[in-house]
Inverse folding.
């Protein structure tokens, strides 16, 4: 077994306009000061991390790695969540998602998709230069508006949505394969990949592509009322990245999973800071350790109540306390009687047959 690496932090929610949150050096010093040893880097802020330059320049990647090393930090994964979202966008969401794209392709869906695909391919090359083996992203969505089967969905609608999703992602996955990097889809509401069934449907459309894998985030599963522990039993071979994020679900006589269009603080299901929600992280870390998960435990902060800096300050220690330092030998080795084959045969009543 392997000891999970961590604690690490996803920087996306902490980037700001004022020090220390406005530069990579500032964020690195802040994260290290809280006790984190790794950072997951978003790639949609060129002033922090220039994805195009990283894809083309080993010198640039070495400089970024060196800057983080000065603070005792390493990069866990790059993230293209926003660019991945734009690989597949239903027209209903065109205007809402346009802000995720570069200004020159906004309002141009085909150009925006091409830009997003190229961003993913650049992330594959940058990841390889940085010595990374996993990458975090979203899948995008064509079928999400049809999640609830009313009005009744036409036969073939969902099949074609997943076929097109696979057609768009296959060339990207092939580039990641060439670079030796796994694509880890965060299974997330708003994405066509949001649970095990949808991931399996996507995987089937891709002929089980070896680079199509999972970023495991139990918070999204708790809010769906999915068994997030059994999920690990089923899909552990495809789990290559891990967001440590908490959530709670407290249904009432007035609302449940759908939340009644309310803002986050009023929803029955809402994200919380680590330790403030209902996710059983003790069991999660145990299962991931049992199944030899060798990646990072990365805190993603999203809380409806607590200040992000408080959540981050508590998060490093929370993860550290949950990481299991694996045993080097079985706990009952002290009682091993070290019998030879003849003695074993005698115990089984086999005489000298062995």
């Amino acid at each position: 077994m392997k000891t999970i690496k961590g604690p690490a932090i996803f920087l996306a929610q902490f980037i700001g306009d004022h020090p220390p949150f406005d530069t990579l050096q500032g964020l690195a010093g802040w994260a290290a000061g809280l006790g984190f040893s790794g950072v997951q880097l978003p790639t949609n802020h060129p002033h922090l991390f220039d994805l195009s330059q990283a894809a083309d320049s080993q010198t640039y990647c070495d400089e970024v790695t060196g800057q983080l090393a000065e603070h005792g930090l390493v990069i866990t994964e790059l993230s293209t969540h926003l660019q991945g979202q734009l690989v597949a966008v239903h027209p209903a969401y065109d205007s809402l998602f346009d802000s995720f794209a570069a200004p020159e392709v906004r309002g141009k869906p085909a150009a925006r998709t091409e830009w997003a695909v190229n961003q993913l391919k650049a992330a594959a090359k940058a990841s390889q230069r940085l010595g990374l083996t996993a990458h975090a992203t979203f899948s995008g969505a064509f079928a999400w508006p049809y999640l609830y089967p009313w009005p009744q969905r036409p036969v073939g609608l969902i099949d074609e949505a997943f076929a097109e999703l696979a057609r768009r992602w296959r060339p990207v996955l092939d580039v990641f394969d060439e670079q030796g990097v796994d694509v880890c889809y965060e299974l997330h509401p708003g994405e066509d990949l949001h649970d095990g069934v949808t991931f399996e449907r996507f995987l089937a459309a891709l002929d089980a592509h070896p680079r199509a894998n999972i970023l495991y985030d139990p918070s999204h599963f708790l809010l769906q009322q999915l068994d997030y522990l059994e999920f690990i039993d089923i899909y552990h071979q495809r789990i290559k990245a891990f967001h440590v994020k908490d959530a709670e679900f407290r249904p009432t006589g007035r609302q449940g999973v759908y939340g009644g269009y309310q803002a986050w603080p009023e929803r029955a299901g809402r994200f919380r800071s680590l330790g403030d929600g209902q996710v059983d992280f003790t069991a999660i870390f145990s299962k991931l350790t049992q199944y030899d998960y060798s990646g990072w435990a990365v805190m993603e902060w999203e809380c409806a109540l607590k200040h992000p800096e408080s959540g981050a300050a508590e998060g490093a220690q929370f993860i550290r306390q949950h990481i299991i330092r694996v045993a080097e030998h079985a706990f009952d080795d002290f009682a091993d009687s070290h019998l030879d084959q003849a003695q074993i045969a005698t115990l089984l009543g086999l005489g000298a047959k062995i």
